[in-house]
Design a protein that fits this description.
The chain is α/β, with parallel strands linked by helices. The chain has 12 helices and 15 strands.
Length: 361
Amino acid sequence: MRIKKLNLQNFRNYEEETFEFTDGVNVLVGKNAQGKTNCAEAVFYLCTGASLRIRHDRQLIRKGAECACLSAETECRYGKIALEAEIYENRRELRLNGARVARAVDFLGNMKSVFFSPGELRIVQDGPDERRRFLNLSISQTSKNYASALLRYNKILDQRNNLLKEKDVSVIFETLPVWDEQLARYAAVLIRHREEYLEQLSPLAADAHAFLTDGAERLELGFDGTYPSEEGEIAEKLLRELENAYERDVRLGYTTVGPHRDDIRVLIDGSDARGYASQGQTRTAALSMKLAELEIFKRLSGEAPVLILDDVMSELDLARRKKLLARTEGVQCILTCTHAERVLYGKACNKIRISGGKIVK
């Protein structure tokens, strides 16, 4: 998979620019706060329909503009794909090969990408929300079934939580079973996919971690929850747990049971990385998870996704920079940095210099 051309109009600090990317390493170079990360973010947005940096799409619109337009000419083993997004204050329009896409799930995953930046250390350092977000974005790129179930689960969860805030307790207890049956059904789909994904991710992340650390440390990932193996049995178990939590849920006003509460265990040499890992260990663990994600995408789709490395090299020592570059062989990589010569060590690349939201010819 590769992106050949990217056009941005009124996106972040770009008025209008067109980027042309090549196979291999593409380097966005320039001083800080010039727009390098904004370009990388646009690539990820067109691949996933989501941004890793903001919660509301309207923040992507250039100040003073009414609409931001992003488009990309891409290519995969099945042919050429045109991706477009128009972002307005309170809505957006997505297009695939010129045809409007009604559901975001149908836009997602046509081009796959893996994004890594210093901010991705949140996957290891922060709470369960960040690890669930990592799982949701990653699995959704490879499974429309998962993406659809996640969308439906979240809608039902919101409705159940609104019900729990009702003042009439009798109405709550009478209505909860209706929502629980639907919630458990979609929850079972999410849990089964997550378990299967982690079974693939864990050994690949351990392998990448051993490569980056020369075998000095051992990384382990695990699902922080115990469920039956069959989807139907998972749903039955969740139904019982939801029913047992009725009084607690009513008292707290939100749903305390389900995959929206699950977590991933990240262990380095048997210890919880969140509590014991240094900054360097955290960075290597998060990068290993991203390299494992890249490998899964490659295996499932038969070709490598686009790898986006945003200001990563400056955070790594020389040995790990070289090891990371070795892992980009055969992968289209979009890399941002302030000084290309300090991180690439003579590696051939397509260098694009950016200044003030413009490409410097």
